[in-house]
Fold each of these.
Amino acid sequence: MATRPSLALGLTCKAYVVHSAGLYFEVRMNQGLLLGIGMVTLAGIVQGSFAVPMKRMPAWRWENTWLLFACSGLIAFPWITNFATVPNVISVYAGASPSTLVEVLLFGLLWGVGATLFGLAISRVGMALGFALILGITSSFGSLIPMAILHSEQLLAKRGMALIGGSAVMVVGLVFLALAGRTREHDLGTGSGARSGFAFGLVLCIFSGIFSSMMNFSFVFGDELRVRALQAGASNAMAANPIWALTVTGGFVANFAYCVYLLNKNRTWSVFRSGNPSAYWPLGILTGLLWFGGTVFYGMGAASLGALGGIVGWPIFMTIDIFAALFWGAVSGEWRGASRRALIYNWVGVGVLLVAVAVISASNAS
């Protein structure tokens, strides 16, 4: 008879321990989720602000500012960060399969084409509109295609159908944004030349959005490098840096080649000495720091979100990126003088775009 209370007490204690362990695990999971979302949000704010310093460099041509951005943001900061945060990084690359290295470099090269088109597009359609158009397309492609390749069985499931539906809704938002930009050009009375320039800028935005999604392809398909970095002693937050460094090096090739082509064609090498070089050079370097800093924060946040972090975190990253660009575009007066109709088109387009990204994010998180 004396053993029954002891047995009951033992079972109660065991149940309490199991329940407590479950609560602890749930709290840890929630903390990881909040940390991941917080880091991805910070990444979007930082990277969405990277083009702001360029507005303070009016005496330099596009190729001058973009070359400085490419050298600092695609070569200097990525490799300094990579060697500083990943032990034995050379052995990480040496031990990786050749197919992984080729894929990361190839996706990086294609992303570099998108980055070059990005710079050309925002110089024609403006920072706010350009970011919204390009990142809206990038958000959809960057999530949909990796799922189709790596998790094809989910395409016809709830998550896949929501992702496809969200992408379709996103097209509607992009149409409204295109109408907003075209109406703004008409309101400013800049003539047929500007209208044709906007149309060309719109085409650049579309292709930039498609190619820019290759950045997330590198992160998803280059996961072997992240795993090897962890095995080499890198922290979980910094283990993606070997992927980023290799990706943006591939992207640097496309950006560097086009900038040098323009510098020779337009004979603008001497422009590096124009304006206020003592301020312009640090500003140009700052663009690279902001851009790559956002990329590192995204990698940290996506890693905290778990196995589908590259799919779940990407739309959130793009959304915050768009918000930051819209804020800076408004502050810099890009929509000053535009009609009420143009502003309505713009905000309807942004609203539809954010609804689409929210659907994509919610479906991926389910």
Amino acid sequence: MIREDDISALDGQLLDELTTIVSAAGAAILATRAGPCATWTKADQSPVTAADHAAQAAILDGLARVLPDVAVVSEEAALPAGLSDLAETFILVDPLDGTREFIAGRGEFTVNVAIIVQGRPRLGIVAAPAQGLIWRGIAGKGAERLRLPAGRPAGAAEERMAVRTRKAPGSGLIAVASRSHLDPQTEAFLTRLPVGERLACGSAVKFCQVAEGAADVYPRLSTTCEWDVAAGHAVLVAAGGTVMTAAGGPLNYGRAGANFRVPNFVAWGDPSAPAKLGL
């Protein structure tokens, strides 16, 4: 069993090992573009492709070597028995976040891996394989963006840049919202804010845009899943931001009894912004 103290002692090494695993998953996704990529529809009517499964296999294989005793909750894998009583440390994985963007030929899809400790994201990695970029961070230790071609190990990064959120302006906020899942509640929330520019994007890239100061707020007031959110949440917090529920409370993870659903969230680059805006 890995405890939080163990993760703290291994932070640098573990972050690089997990980054290399995520990079391999990105390469597996891109390899499927060499030919026709089989696509299916799941029971919830969301799409899944051979690329999702290829990335899943690469991640699970890597995690079995690096963190063999830690439970993994993943979108495309059967959940292990006994997850109604999750350990205090577990891993959340989305092997291909933004499947609709992938199918449409856009490069906004990501690979997401997060370590959860006592219900909170401790470490997160978000890779955008088509862009050759990886964002990663550890709570309390900062976040960074790597330029790393998919399939290369973490140590082969061509560029490393620390990322940090920006202070929200009093007006002219930059908001990011889902390209494929914009709902009426989120639209109504955005109309209450002094937004000067709105960006549409798929996948967890939106969290990363807020983390690096390219945007100020990312709301989603419709249901999503923990594996869609946790890695981006970790990166954003490491960069100085915050993620909360629409009611302003903490967003916790490990809700097996709720099928790992997240009812809503709002991600802010500037944690003081909600109070300044009277929300």
Amino acid sequence: MTTRDLSRKRLLVTGGSGFVGRHLLAALGGRGCADIAAPRRAEYDLTREADVARLFDTVRPEIVIHLAAVVGGIGANRIHPGRFFYDNAMMGLFVMEQARRAGVEKLVGIGTICSYPKFAPVPFREDDLWNGYPEETNAPYGIAKKLLLVQGQAYRQEYGFNAIHLLPVNLYGPGDNFDPESSHVIPALVRKCVEARDAGRPEVVIWGDGLSTREFLYVEDCAEAIVLATERYDGAEPVNVGAGFEISIRDLAVLIGELTGFSGTFVFDHTKPGGQPRRMLDVARARAAFGFSATTEFRPGLRRTIEWYAAQRQA
């Protein structure tokens, strides 16, 4: 397995100030990478072609890691399906086209588990990616990110452009988004449990029936996977990035309640959607293709996430 020396490359990381981006920059720094551009949206709006062209003219990167995305939980996806589709699609299209024109050596596209069909066989295998329509509440986001995979494969075929595509599972960890309007399930539950505990409320309400399952990957593990794929993987096929386990939302709530000290009850609102019925990835390809296996156990990772939130809240 050939390993590319990233410390000698000029890197562009879109979305570098985001949740995953901050951990990715730290992981790249640990590899000795010093020539990294991680611009903010205030400088370059990646949904505008002129801004993306100006970015590539300024940075002249050799390798691009495209993390930038407009993301959120089920509620945010239901409210903003048009924005989630348009912004994510345009960013991907413009970034890859400008990378091709600029002669970039490699582009690492970050997709999403939301691209999988609603009823994909568990564990999700990359070969099943096209065997059905995604779960309705996040289909616009999932399909927009899927465009990046199709674009990369088309550009590889016609132009010989080296674009790879990674499919991370649900992420969690320190620095996550705890905004109740747009957060994913772990930060949402952590915040609800902590606030209910402190206010002495007897119950926490959760969307759905609690039977849906999810797989979670610690954000530092995800950052390591992205670095390894950037160093070692140059294939056309998408690659799952996960931890290879699943837990029901009901069991997740109980665990978070225990770790936060919330002793009340959980009430499940069956009138609200619970999202995809099951989610768990087959992670064999990542292990074989670039040597990635998750190393953070779920309970300790969850505890670190809760401790980080508690410190931020206190501050």
Amino acid sequence: MAAPKSVRVDLETPQCERGIGKVILAPDSHDLIDGVVVQPYALWPDDRGYFLEVARIRQGLAAQFPMESTQVSAALSYPGTIKAFHFHRHQTDLWVPVAGALQIALVDLRKQSPTYGARNTMYVGSLRPWQILVPPGIGHGYKVIGTEAAVLVYVTNRLYDPQDEGRIPYDHPGICYDWETQHK
């Protein structure tokens, strides 16, 4: 799957009802926000732990990421931490949760998108090893769930540029994302 090309993104915060949007239970879900791609990654466990490949240059979801500007970073976050929301105007993110458990929240901020205002929730990490391609214009964030710290490795198609990044409070009334435990 090719990474989205960098295009001008006309962004606007939607007015959503309180909730978490569509919970994505399969990588090929028809409820995915337009342009978001989900793919399981291989995990090789043994009696010492496990091994996984985060990304291969010129292959997989990061196949179109340019060699000269691809950046790989990692974030460790403690249980209960919420890091949300932020978005990029040009940058594509490839998120690979490698330890712990995350509740990932996505919201489509692209006014001209067929899924404008849609929200997706994914529960990923050690028990559901998915990588998630997040194109420009998609607000994204996460909450660490469970009792362990979580590690998120992310590969981006551009070097960090603070001018490309926008921030929206985790409790923005237009997005109205419900970060509380759902008890379902």
